[in-house]
Write a structure and sequence with these properties.
Layout lengths: L1 E3 L2 E3 L1 E4 L3 H12 L4 E4 L11 E4 L2 E4 L5 E2 L3 H6 L2 H4 L2 E2 L4 E5 L2 E5 L20 H16 L2 H5 L6 H7 L4 H16 L8 H13 L2 E3 L6 H8 L6 E2 L4 E5 L2 E4 L4 E3 L2 E4 L3 H7 L8 E11 L9 E4 L6 E4 H4 L9 E8 L4 H15 L7 E13 L12 E3 L2 E3 L9 H17 L1 E4 L2 E4 L1
Parallel strand pairs: 3-4, 3-16, 4-12, 9-18, 16-23
Antiparallel strand pairs: 1-2, 5-6, 7-11, 8-11, 9-10, 13-14, 14-15, 17-20, 17-21, 19-20, 22-23, 24-25
Helix pairs in contact: 1-9, 1-13, 4-8, 6-8
Length: 422
């Protein structure tokens, strides 16, 4: 072990997002002395929650999926006080709002899936086969499947261009943060499987409660916030405030841009940018806790957050979340509000924009074919993890952090109670 600023550390983990927290927890559980450094004042990375004008607002619209294996392994769901969205989505079409739902969950509400409404009988058959396979097949089978784009996968499954444009493109644009449906087909099948098997929820205190729970499980003294790392050195890391921290191994668990700065030569994917607008209104446009998408794709998605989690409002007004690709200017923001009036068929004159957040690199781009997991080993004693090393999801981030911990442990061995390199 190496000595540094009064302590001994086996591993320094840089970045206390989901990946870094998972990695640090696993390394601590294995008995290593770990230091987790986070540049910001709080943990979470992109999984942050703020309080603005009395409202609970996440750093961009984020839902919590209960079906992820890493979530089941690491998160105490009861403590999050989850409240669920209605299964399925509402689609704004030229004929009005149509409900796209799983008949096995909400049979009485699946009348819009009758042939001739949202889809043809042929589309419904193709959709049933696709969904049945993805829901029932082991995830390992889906991971080994032939890869390409999501658009090609839908066509090969027999889904018509009409249903793609009415439902899949509007819906998946909000999932993948891109509207060409170029995302890896294998990742699409895994995402579709998780949606069919899980429940989409919001924690009572916002999405930031998830990484906060992981941070609370760390031993005392492991986590340091407000500590920015400027370089990964030969024997540890250098700090912006001055000084070095020495360690046998360094795990860079930041977003892809910072990771590329700390590990020169690291190849990282492009990122997807999304902007979320939060409007408050005394007259909620919808009482149901359901996600709404627009077949004309004027917005990625929208929902009344307080219909899912009433605690998100501090003054009794409804809070409406709406996401769009990129970062629209003032004219674009005003246009979104006009579009919302049409999507919800509601008067939006009294809607107040209480918050706007743009998230660069909200998700890593995954145009297919794409690997579902990349090595965390960068160089001797240097590791990297995050959703950009796996899949753009909480599952991907946690799994990548777990893999980095396994790789570090595999590259070390215990001798006389000490940890040293093989």
């Amino acid at each position: 072990m190496a000595r540094t600023d009064g302590g001994w550390y086996d591993v320094v983990v840089v970045g206390a997002g989901a990946a870094g927290l998972a990695c640090a927890n696993d390394l601590c559980a294995a008995g290593l002395r770990v230091l987790l450094l986070e540049a910001d004042a709080t943990v979470g990375g992109r999984m942050r929650t703020d309080r603005v004008a009395g409202f609970v607002v996440d750093r961009g619209f984020q839902v919590f999926n209960t079906s992820y294996p890493q979530v089941k392994r690491r998160i105490e769901l009861k403590a999050l006080r989850l409240r669920a969205f209605t299964p399925g989505v509402l689609v704004r079409t030229e004929s009005g709002l149509r409900r796209f739902t799983d008949p096995s969950r909400r049979l009485r509400e699946s009348r819009d899936l009758l042939p001739g409404r949202l889809a043809s009988g042929r589309d419904l058959l193709a959709l049933g086969v696709l969904s049945g396979r993805d829901a029932l097949a082991p995830a390992s089978v889906l991971r080994r499947g032939r890869d390409g784009s999501t658009l090609t996968a839908l066509a090969e499954a027999g889904v018509s261009p009409e249903l793609v444009e009415t439902f899949f493109r509007p819906f998946l644009s909000g999932v993948f943060l891109e509207d060409e449906l170029e995302t890896s087909a294998r990742f699409f099948h895994l995402v579709w499987r998780s949606m069919l098997r899980g429940t989409q929820c919001l924690p009572a205190d916002g999405i930031g409660a998830v990484p906060a729970q992981l941070a609370d499980r760390l031993p005392p003294g492991v986590l340091r916030t407000g500590t920015r790392v400027t370089a990964a050195t030969g024997g540890g890391v250098s700090l912006a405030a001055g000084g070095d921290v020495q360690a046998r191994a360094v795990v860079v668990a930041t977003g892809q841009r910072v990771a590329a700065e700390l590990l020169p030569g690291l190849r990282v994917p492009a990122g997807r940018t999304v902007t979320t607008l939060y409007h408050a209104t005394a007259r909620p446009p919808l009482a149901e806790p359901v996600l709404v998408v627009d077949s004309r794709r004027r917005v990625l998605n929208t929902c009344v957050l307080t219909a899912v989690q009433p605690r998100f409002s501090g003054d009794g007004r409804a809070l409406v979340s709406t996401s769009v690709l990129g970062s629209p200017g003032p004219a674009g923001t005003a246009g979104v509000l006009r579009s919302l009036g049409e999507v919800y068929d509601a008067d939006t004159d009294d809607w107040e924009l209480v918050h706007r957040v743009t998230v660069p690199d909200a998700l890593p781009a995954m145009p297919g074919p794409a690997p579902l997991s990349r090595s965390t080993r960068f160089a001797p004693g240097r590791y990297v993890c995050g959703d950009h090393r796996a899949t753009g999801s909480l599952q991907g981030a946690l799994a990548s952090g777990a893999r980095a911990a396994r790789d570090v442990l595999a590259d070390l061995k215990t001798s006389s109670g000490q940890v040293r390199w093989l």
